[in-house]
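User: Quick sanity check before I run a bigger batch. Here is a single chain. Can you write out its predicted 3D structure?
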Amino acid sequence: MSKLTDLPKRILIGRALRSDRLQETLLPKRIALPVFASDPLSSVAYAPGEVLLVLSIAGLSAYHFSPWIALAVVILMFTVVASYRQNVHAYPSGGGDYEVANTNLGPKAGLTVASALLVDYVLTVAVSISSGIENLGSAVPFVVENKVLCAVAVILLLTVMNLRGVKESGSLFAIPTYVFVTGVFIMIAWGAYKGIVLDETMKAPTADLEIKAEHEGLAGFALVFLLLRAFSSGCAALTGVEAISNGVPAFRTPKSKNAGTTLAMMGALAVTMFCGIIFLAMATDVRMAENPAHDLLSGGQPVGESYVQDPVISQVAAAVFGDGTFFFVLLAAATALVLFLAANTAYNGFPLLGSILAQDRYLPRQLHTRGDRLTFSNGIVLLAGAAALLVWVYGADSTKLIQLYIVGVFVSFTLSQTGMVRHWNRHLRTETDPAKRRHMIRSRAINTFGAFFTGLVLVVVLATKFTHGAWVALLGMVIFYGTMTAIRRHYDSVADEIAAAEERPDEYVRPSRVRSVVLVSKLHKPTLRALAYAQLVHAHELEALTVNVDPAETKALKAEWDRRGINVPLKILDSPYREITRPVIDYVKNIRRESPRDAVSVYIPEYVVGHWYEHLLHNQSALRLKGRLLFTPGVMVTSVPYQLRSSEAAKLRARKRQEWNAPGAVRRGPVEKRPKEPVGKDT
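Assistant: Done. Predicted structure follows.
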């Protein structure tokens, strides 16, 4: 079985790496930017559209509020980036929001932040890939017709790429991310040049359509609520900002400085692209609607169910570059790719956070174990499974999924910044150096404003998105919180139960006697080896045990036993219902019942085979017996292996695989071992 799985595994994820090569997997800033910032950078592909979709409820007249909403999002982005720059310097160990909240606000706050982040990472994968599928679907009809299948396939592809290692996957992801960023900046610059310098009129494909308002003439509280909802949808541009603070250990040294620089670069790029696309959308008269089939009108009539609403960035690119031109196709392809790769932010954040939580005993310990390529492979697989399930449930519809989004982000933002305020307050009580105090006071002011602003946005998000699907994200947070609390309670109870006490408890008291039982089915070499080993241990009592399933075979076994003169008594258990496991278990339990101070050692002969199919033909009774005996107190189970010839063949195959080298891997051998060529006297 190992042979069957090892080759495909090596083909997919590459050769295993030694633990001492972990330093080689650390990221420079040019690779860390696309790895950790692909989510906020790519969100400019759908965040402007979400703003216009919400404003369309009040009709075209509400679109003039979009620049002001963009300005509010920009202020929030700068606030969050400035706040997180304090985090990466104060907590460079990689715990991010979880560590800040856990250290300064207590375990419950830390667990709340962790729950919010885990939910948000799963949603990041689902939303990014679903949005990418929709962008790609505008050019490839098959993708639209099979959205769920294609989305799950992309999730599997990203999973394999991340299992190969952070640095390797980051190098692959860097190219489309930088192509996307460059393409958006070229689009913004060329659009501004055409509109301002050349004074050309640029029209989006939807510019001639009309919007049928669901609620016309909104004013007062209703208008304010609509604007707040549009603002909360635009805040999707901030998702993934926290990933850099969670991933500080993955940066090259100096880690905090490099992480802070990458965070600032990400903020500047995301803000510029977000604002540029919003303003170009206004200049090109982009039209968007939540229900385009009925709310978008052409000549006074709805466009119908066959109409496919392209994302804002696609419509702007068509207006600036021209539909079908080289730059339009290049940007469309880069947008779809970077939306797929935006999920990579979660693929780096979720496993790392899961590892820290596992170390703190809130998640299974397997999540703290690095895989063959020095990645937290169990966390990567868990994230992929959860995201694929979410995509299947919601039909890979980004409009539905995005309603669940950003709630967890702002929960972690708010609690993290509140924790940082406490962090600075604690340090200010003991710090006496005036220069350091001024730095701490400035940092505290930034984090205080960040906590207030993000807390306000959290209230807005909950108020405007709760009935639209945000309650599902909150439910997911509650489930994660309850699960992690239960796991921690289990680990704590097990630790208390198995802790070695200072006084001498019952575990330290030697059993009064050891009674050994060797299980026998036939008298052959494995049985004789098990008997010899059991005799070597020198138990107080030793007996062989067989179950009478076939009277003729049992009679033959007894005769052979006596003929050989084996000096170990053979106990025969009757089994009228031809069971093997239950009579043995009952017999062992009866020994324990009669002599509770005695330890029972059960020896089970087992075959060692070399082919996967041979495992199906042997050792089944032994496996069942071991599984049952594990739950019997005071019983020790010992497997006595007997290697068949096929096991030797398996060892030989394994040795050959270790010695095999790919063509070109070994060239001419060590220099000192090469035979020297004779040199002629005349040369």
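Residues 51 and 230 are 5 Å apart (CA to CA).

User: Great, the batch can go ahead then.
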